[in-house]
Amino acid sequence: MSAIWYFEDINLFKILCPHKYPAYKENHKVNSYKKSDYIYFEEDTANKIYLIDKGKVKIGYYTEEGDEVIKSILTKGEIFGEKAILGEDKRNEFAQSIDNTTSICPVSKDTMYELMRDNVSVSFKIYKFIGLRMKKLERRLQLLLYKDTRTRLIEFFNELCDDYGYECDETGDHIIKHPYTQKDIATLIGTSRPTLNTLMNELKSEEIIDFKGKELRLLKKVA
């Protein structure tokens, strides 16, 4: 598995949440957010890393013209704000809840440094996770700049297959049970929901995909 949203199928919340460590358990807390609540804004001080216990968070920024650009949508078990441990002093992006029941564990940068210093395995996982995330975001930016919407959508489905898919023994199809709404997908590939619906129906008629709710059947992976 080459997932960006999960690191080798490991729930990072379970590994890093301070309630697992006696030295930090007393001061540990989980914050709740409603839909549209911001966890942090651009230019905020970068002094914490955040772990998602439940819900969904979108990460993005605003252009000079005021347009919103979404870099990623994250779900349970994922981390964000991780550039704080790479030396970032100010946020260059925003983080916003897109679920009415989002719960997040904030971890101070100093606490995270201590956890990483005391556990080499955790430190390795974090840095590799950051590297994978940067690589995937760079790939997505290239697609947004140079590829048409259909190509971006197919590439996204292939990524979903890598991240959330499994092969069905009976048919050989790949079944993908993912956490994203159609609005999420449209946002991530830089298109509108009507255009997304049209493309998905085209791919279905071409017998490339089939779908129902948040279950996607990838009948064949397209390069």
Report what the structure shows.
The protein has 223 residues and is α+β, with helices and mostly antiparallel strands. It has helices at residues 12-16, 22-25, 109-118, 120-146, 149-164, 182-189, 193-205, and strands at residues 31-33, 38-40, 48-54, 57-62, 68-74, 79-80, 94-97, 102-108, 165-167, 174-177, 209-212, 215-218. A four-stranded antiparallel sheet has the order 1-8-3-6. The chain has a four-stranded antiparallel sheet with strand order 2-7-4-5. A four-stranded antiparallel sheet has the order 9-10-12-11. Helix 3 (109-118) packs across helix 4 (120-146) and helix 6 crosses helix 7 (193-205). The protein is globular and about 55 Å long. 27% of the residues are buried. The model is unreliable at 1-11 (pLDDT under 50).
Could you outline the blueprint of secondary structure elements for this entry?
Blueprint: H1 12-16, H2 22-25, E1 31-33, E2 38-40, E3 48-54, E4 57-62, E5 68-74, E6 79-80, E7 94-97, E8 102-108, H3 109-118, H4 120-146, H5 149-164, E9 165-167, E10 174-177, H6 182-189, H7 193-205, E11 209-212, E12 215-218
Antiparallel strand pairs: 1-8, 2-7, 3-6, 3-8, 4-5, 4-7, 9-10, 10-12, 11-12
Helix pairs in contact: 3-4, 6-7
